[in-house]
Amino acid sequence: MEIVYVYVKKRSEFGKQCNFSDRQAELSIDIAPNPELAALYVERNPVDTGIQCSASMSEHEANTERFEMENCGVNHVEGGWPKDVNPLELEQTIRFRKKVEKDENYISTIVQLGSIMEHCIKQNNAIDIYEEYFNDEDDVEVTEEAPSAKTINVFRDPQEIKRTATHLSWHPDGNKKLAVAYSCLNFQRAPMGMSHDSYIWDLENPNQPELALKPPSPLVTLEYNPKDSHVLLGGCYNGQIACWDTRKGSLVAELSTIEFSHQDPVYGTIWLQSKTGTECFSASTDGQVMWWDIRKLSEPTEVVIMDISRKGQLENALGAISLEFESTLPTKFMVGTEQGIVISCNRKAKTPAEKIVCTFSGHHGPIYALQRNPFYPKNFLTVGDWTARIWSEDSRESSIMWTRYHMAYLTDGAWSPVRPAVFFTTKMDGTLDIWDLVFKQCDPALSLKVCDDALFCLRVQDTGCLIACGSQLGTTTLLEVSSSLSTLQRNEKNIASSIFERETRREKILEARHREMRLKEKGKVEGEDDGQKEEEGALDLNELVAKAEEEFFEIVFSELRRKDAEAMKKKPKSVRTSAGVGGGSGGREGAMWPEFCLTAGVWVISSQ
Amino acid sequence: MIPIRTTLDNSTTVQYAGLLHQLTMKAKSTVRDIDPQNDLTFLRIRSKKHEIMVAPDKEYLLIVIQNPCE
């Protein structure tokens, strides 16, 4: 039965404010009980109900606080001597020991334990349970697994105000520690109260950095000394060079004087191979490359100005963004500049003009990374603007191989230390690309999105398995690469060297061809008075242009004539005149307005 | 913990005894946690350089350090 109450409202009253009023209750419906309906039902007897008699419980979730653990060692000393024995008195201790040795319990225990122990010792002597039975089999298996990489650990910047992780350096022995330099690279946009600290992280403990380094100004680069793993070199945002000794603590051990340091942030610092292990050099966007000895950081030992016109003028100098030095070629070093040019220099040259050997240009923007191939030092990788390029020292006009233009800027790149054909690049959209030239040359073999913010720097561990990348918000991600990308494949060295050689040869051929063409052009320009030279070659530009014009006008004329003929058929009265020195674009049929067309500098008007 | 008889020098003995005593206690409690009727009879730790064998008892501990036969 439906109970319905109907009310009527005038349309004009819609939207009016409600005026509430009190009124008496109105009886809408009165339904009397009908005892006849009860006859339709039967009483239930017995009634079944389930009940439970137990303590009432409630469910509650709790998330425990993170438990901070700290590792510390325990110093074990001898103790537990009974009161009457003085542990320092040798006589007393010997006497006590002898007493224990005579104890029956001791004797029986030792005999029993001794027999168990003897059994195990004999076991060990009989068989070596960890013997490698099938040593040779490992070489045979070649697993064709897909390349993969997974994140192992993430180290976050513990500071409130997040800074970019601008440089990473692995600890030289054992690679168990990672030094990360934090700074804000946006010009003058470093937020107030931003900490200057940079940290050294222990890979086992991602919650807290092992050591904090406190420079006077945020560090842009940080490098471990490969010879002495306690010493670190840092390049500051204000141009100074600082040196730390981790045994001494977090404060700077040595600092260069401001007057003699760089005038711009130090973007590249590298340790040099020297007998003392204290020499290093640094480069900055102020156009200077300075050599230092860390024992005396008050002034640089040598300064070279990156002026490619070889005049040594600071005004013309190009700002250096990356630095490259290979210890196998100790006299040469390379500098990547903000203008997209790589300058190769010789340290041992006598005059400053001779220091700069040659330049390689090809990038449109700053070269953020520059590294020689560890297996083939003649080839080097540069990363800048939207591409990564591989160069050969022999081919100076252009790079021998390059990737396609990506959607995001490439910020850093590195070769794999174990495989000559593998290199890694990071991009501003947070992806890490792993390129394998032996596998595929046009696309990365593996492309991983590491994090949502831009990745700024990349460093591969010496074993080639672990990669650390630093991002804009200061998170350093540690990734492990699958074994197929970190073990040397069969024949890979030969294949890689043949790839590089082939590409170098191709570039050389192209270079030679370009040179020939340029010589010919020069020859043509010189020989314009000499008519004979013009006959040579159908490659004469003017002739070609004239021929092209003729052909074009032919086509247009024939088209116009065709249109005229059609129009004549339709409207025999109107007289069409097409006046023109040349041709024009085919007039639209029935067009009433004059048409202008500019073709090769010729005016055409066709009108009705 | 007092070293009774040893073939090594005192400081090494004290260090080994202290560390291995703690480890043995932990191993024993682990075995008994899993099965209360069970008990630790022997503990062997094989490292790159040598093998350390520990035979525990109620009051005493016998430790042997052996070089593997390779």
TrEMBL record, chain A:
SUPFAM superfamilies: WD40 repeat-like (SSF50978). The keyword Isomerase does not apply. GO terms for molecular function: dynein heavy chain binding; dynein light chain binding. Keywords: Cell projection, Cilium, Cilium biogenesis/degradation, Cytoplasm, Cytoskeleton, Dynein, Microtubule, Motor protein, Repeat, WD repeat. One of its GO terms (biological process) is cilium movement. InterPro entries: Dynein_IC, WD40/YVTN_repeat-like_dom_sf, WD40_repeat_dom_sf, WD40_rpt. Part of the dynein complex of respiratory cilia. Belongs to the dynein intermediate chain family. Consists of at least two heavy chains and a number of intermediate and light chains. Interacts with DNAAF2. Interacts with DNAAF6/PIH1D3. Interacts with HEATR2; probably involved in outer arm dynein assembly. Interacts with CFAP53. This is Dynein axonemal intermediate chain 2. The gene is Dnai2.
TrEMBL record, chain B:
It is found in: Cytoplasm, Cytoskeleton. Residues 2-67 form the Roadblock/LAMTOR2 domain. Its main location: cytoplasm. The keyword Transmembrane does not apply. One of its GO terms (biological process) is microtubule-based movement. Belongs to the GAMAD family. Acts as one of several non-catalytic accessory components of the cytoplasmic dynein 1 complex that are thought to be involved in linking dynein to cargos and to adapter proteins that regulate dynein function. Cytoplasmic dynein 1 acts as a motor for the intracellular retrograde motility of vesicles and organelles along microtubules. This is Dynein light chain roadblock-type 2. It comes from Nannospalax galili (Northern Israeli blind subterranean mole rat). The lineage of its organism: Eukaryota, Metazoa, Chordata, Craniata, Vertebrata.
